[in-house]
Amino acid sequence: MHIERIDLNLFVIFERIYAEGSLTRASEQLNLTQPALSHALARLRTVVNDPLFVRQGGRMVPTPAAHKLIRYVKPSLTAIKQGLGEIEDFDPTSSRKRIHIGWPHRFESVMLPRLMPVIEAGAPGVELSCSLLGRYELEEKLSTGAIDLALNVLRPTGPDIRSRLILRSDLAVVARKGHPGIRKTLSMNSYMAHKHVLVTGSSNGRGFEDFELAAHGLKRDISLRCTDYHSACLVVSKTNLLLTIMSPIAELAVQGSDIELHRFPLPDKTVDLYLYWHAMSDNDPAIQWMIGLIEEQVSADASIKAVNKPKPARKPEKSSTAKSSARTGAQ
After folding, report:
1. Which of 9-13, 168-172, 308-312 has the lowest mean pLDDT?
2. Which domain of life is it from (predicted)?
3. Does residue 123 belong to any structural domain of this protein?
4. For residues 223-232, b (16+ Cβ closer than 10 Å) or e, as one string?
5. Is the pLDDT of residue 274 over 70?
6. Percent helix, strand, coil in the chain (nearest 5)?
């Protein structure tokens, strides 16, 4: 294959389709008609001898060959833009930028109510696109440009992934009002005597709290695994099951409901949340603006333990990673 015979604009189109997962959105981003975009995709398919994308419902799902190709195309396009000085100054008041964030479902209710009022008031043209992020997808999706930022607990990552600790959250235990097994405070004996709900995207994974309990030689009885906090809280309100979640999520859930909050019976146990991005975005003003906005809103919120003076962008330390390796399966 001779690269001089290939129209390199095809890779620009490929990258947009990959990032957007939609011919319609990609055509809007590139100011091309859908027929023109489809024709370009057909040409590239012929060049690489692979369909690259398969339509599933309303999405264009990448093939394995597309996943491999984007690892080379995305950083190459970024380098070219930087070399030509085409990464323009970012003005949030007038930008139409779409920023993609991936995170586990439990973080949406914590972050979006803090971010969207500020974006609506000061950056009305900026679109925030959020998607669920599986436990092993963080590095791949940042590397391929499928997402711009990720929010998660501490994960082991490669050298091109930046991370920054942005907040610490207490754990709370949710129980129905008038729970017969709980007096004024929730003791460890009472906590361990009851069955529990675990919100997770995994059929057999453990939560952060399970690793903390295991460190004290304890294993709780999980009666229900589900994928949604709202459903979990409804179940708790009608049963004697207990639910352990981050305090900011719990405080939202308890409003106007038949549930109440108790302190997690292991003192001083917190969940550390990290913001992740790829080194390719170090000089992207839009992504750096969003990083600053997230840190600013977290720091300004008295209901959570923000890290007011985060360390510079870095990789998690080896010691921390090793210490938390057992926790990387927590959902």
Report:
1. 308-312
2. Bacteria
3. yes
4. ebbeeebeeb
5. yes
6. 45, 20, 35
Closest CA relative to residue 26, chosen from 65, 64, 52:
52
Are 104 and 63 in the same domain? no
CA 61/CA 258 separation, integer angstroms: 42
Answer yes or no: pTM beyond 0.85. Answer: no
Which 3-state string (H, E, C) describes 119-131?
HHHHCCCCEEEEE
pLDDT in tens, 168-182: 888 899 999 999 999
Q: Of 20, 55, 84, which residue sits at a domain end?
A: 84
For residue 300, the model assigns a pLDDT of 74
Tens digit of each residue's pLDDT (9 = 90 or more) over 289-303: 999 999 998 887 655
- Joined tokens for residue 247: 């305090």
Question: Cα separations (Å) of 175 from 166, 248, 288?
Answer: 28, 16, 40
Contact of 182 with 190, CB cutoff 8 Å = yes
- CATH number of the CATH domain containing 325: 3.40.190.10
| Amino acid code (one letter) for 243 | L
- Label residues 187-199 b or e (16+ Cβ within 10 Å = b): eeebbeebebbbb
Which structural domain range is residue 179 located in? 169-263
